[in-house]
Amino acid sequence: MSPAQLSDDDLAKALTDLPEWTRQGDSITRTVEARSFLAGVELVRRVAAAAEAANHHPDIDIRWRRVTFTLSTHSAGGLTALDVALAHEIDRLHASE
Question: What EC number(s) are associated with this protein in UniProt (predicted)?
């Protein structure tokens, strides 16, 4: 069973705690700038491990030091609490690098 989609109001409230994330249709996205290419790759590795543990996987685009994360729960056809939780974890991992 897929998790329930968030209502627009619930998503708006969740994004107040995720100021670096923006909604783009049925996804939320954030681009971070790492201090080096290797630091960006290491961040992706750490996010990948967290995503695997949560069984919820982001789309990731690496462009030199810029890493873009896009989250959506495809099985639910939109945004769910899984996306919000992973966004918080990505923020935590980025802040700790």
Answer: 4.2.1.96
Residues 6+ apart with CB under 8 A from 44: 60, 62, 67
pLDDT per residue, tens digit, the chain (97 aa), is 678 999 999 999 999 999 999 999 999 999 999 999 999 999 999 999 999 999 999 999 999 999 999 999 988 999 999 999 999 999 999 998 8
Show the domains of the chain with their CATH numbers. 26-95 (3.30.1360.20)
CA 74, CA 88: separation in Å to the nearest integer?
A: 19
